[in-house]
Amino acid sequence: MTDKIIIFDTTLRDGEQSPGYSMNTAEKMYLASQLEKLRVDVLEAGFPSSSEGDFEAVQMIAKKIRSVEIAALARTFKEDINAAWGAIKEAANPRIHIFIATSDIHLQHKLKMDRNQVINKAVEAVKYAKQFTNNIEFSAEDGSRTDRDFLSRIFEAAILAGATIVNLPDTVGYAIPVEFAELIAYVKDHTPNIGKVILSVHCHNDLGLATANTLAGVNAGAQQVEVTVNGIGERAGNTSLEELVMALHTRKDYLPYFTTINTKEIYPSSHLLAMITGIPLQPNKAIVGSNAFAHEAGIHQDGVLKNKTTYEIMEPATIGLETNHLIIGKHSGRHAFGDRLQTLGYDLSESDIDHLFKRFKELADKRKEIVNEDLEVLVAEEILRVPDTFKLKYLNVISGTATVPTATVQLEIGGNIEQKAGFGIGPIDATFNTIAKMAGTESKLLRFSIDSLTGGTDAQGNVTVRLEEEGVQTLGKGTDPDIIVASAKAYINGLNRLAHLKQKASSQNNKRGCGFLH
Ligand code: KIV
Ligand code: ZN
To answer: Cα separation of 355 and 377, whole Å?
Structure first.
């Protein structure tokens, strides 16, 4: 007999709280819909007490995503639990997730409490949450560095108080698989009533062992695993959803468990997250990296041509990776275009498709072939965009070996067309300096990266910028076959996002004290 493993996705909470992965509400909503298609069992949508923005995003997700359990994180404070419940109360199946640290290191240096005080806080919080729902998860933060007997005691107390799921995190990614499995086994043996609740594990990847530790936890009896798409999360990240799911899928012989994840949505989910955040995956990332199914060495290619199983342990199609990349061009009609978007997993309204089709035609006029990546960028740019405070109307750049790089820029600002010229040490610097002057921005450019979507000199340049102003950070993205135009678009997109965020910022608190707003 095989056991189902519950997939608890925390991409929008543990993942989103890590530097660089901040998302706005529309982006979170978009990703949440994709996670629903992926069929995760539980979606941790955020930490509602951390900011008004987080509260709103969790609330919106809870209202719209109906087929997945929606969890919200809370510390043991009543205000946190009230906020968590306030945000998820309209979910079809809400879960309050309460945590408190349990290791001596955290008790002594962070909480300044003794063990009995921590148990009392946990019990009080679970009992308080019980008035709202019976679906309560309790997490012992830094569980893997907690005294085993104390861990069992606090789990016992949380279960008696009404927790229905207990979660054992390796918060700092310190555990070694055999040791983690022993800890799970110990807790199972020494915690009264643990058989009546779900036992969960939540691992971080500081030593690159998150997936191994999670699998060890599953083998030792954990029924729920907490994971993120692409393994994003605090510091080195969390257990990667795709690695965990595909390990269980591929090694059923050794791991007699199953998930109800729709594996064909793994690649689209991974891609969508990278697209939304503008942070590309390392090429050798297991399962979803661009090299994960590429065979370069002649001896490997020869083997794969003779029989795929020589060097391939998974079929790319299982994770929804289309090997046929070449798709449509300028003669393709709206119908083929709409079909392709649907195949890529985008459920768009007719008016969104109409709008995108116009952009597609403009792009197809410049390039012979449009590949899936181009379409994904179009979707990300068009559908996830914020209102245009600044709009690029015209750009002319002069650069070369014997001239001072000069940019002439025309922007539409509040309905007026304005034009300016400026210099820089290179064409992109000249463009950014000129745009910055026109927009009157004080923002700092924290990151600038340029990447081509496909091979070839006619590939689209894909530019990502990260901007910061008054403690607010945002990404900007732009694509164009001309990399200077792509850079200008990315910068303007970043400035538009910044303007949008600043408008909302007055009603938001600084997120988790680290200055990220969304
Ligand atoms: O890593 C951790 O301990 C957490 C808890 C809040 C579950 O993210
Ligand atoms: Zn965590």
So the answer is: 14
Model confidence band, residue 514 (pLDDT cutoffs 50, 70, 90): very low
| Ligand 1 atom, smallest distance to 101 CA | 3
* Closest ligand to residue 170's CA: 1
The answer, yes or no, to whether residue 253 has pLDDT greater than 70, is: yes
Going from the Cα of 360 to the center of ligand 1, the distance in angstroms, rounded, reads 43
CATH no. of 3-256: 3.20.20.70
Is the CB of 141 inside a 6 Å radius of any atom of ligand 1? yes
> Given ligand 1 and candidates 50, 100, 111, 141, which is best to mutate, with the most ligand atoms within 8 Å of its CB?
141
Q: Tell me, what amino acid is at 15?
A: G
**390-507 carries CATH number 3.30.160.270:** yes
For the residues 303-319, what does the mean pLDDT come to?
A: 87
Under 8 Å CB-to-CB from 208, ≥6 apart: which residues? Answer: 236
Q: What is the mean pLDDT of the chain?
A: 90
pLDDT, one tens digit per residue, over 476-491 is 888 888 999 999 999 9
Minimal-distance CA residue to ligand 1 atom 8: 14
- Test site for ligand 1: of 9, 18, 99, most ligand atoms within 8 A of the Cβ: 99
Q: Residues 367-393: what's their mean pLDDT?
A: 78
pLDDT given for residue 510 in this prediction: 45
Query: For ligand 1, is residue 16 a contact (CB within 6 Å)?
Result: no
CA distance linking residue 176 with residue 53, whole number of Å = 37
**Distance of alpha carbon 51 from alpha carbon 167, whole angstroms:** 24
Residue 311: both structure tokens together: 């060097």
Query: Distance between CA 497 and CA 493 in Å, rounded?
Result: 6
What are 411-452's pLDDT values in tens digits?
A: 999 899 999 999 999 999 999 999 999 999 999 998 898 887
CB of 14 within 6 A of ligand 1: the answer is: yes
Which stretches of 194-240 are DSSP H helices? 210-219
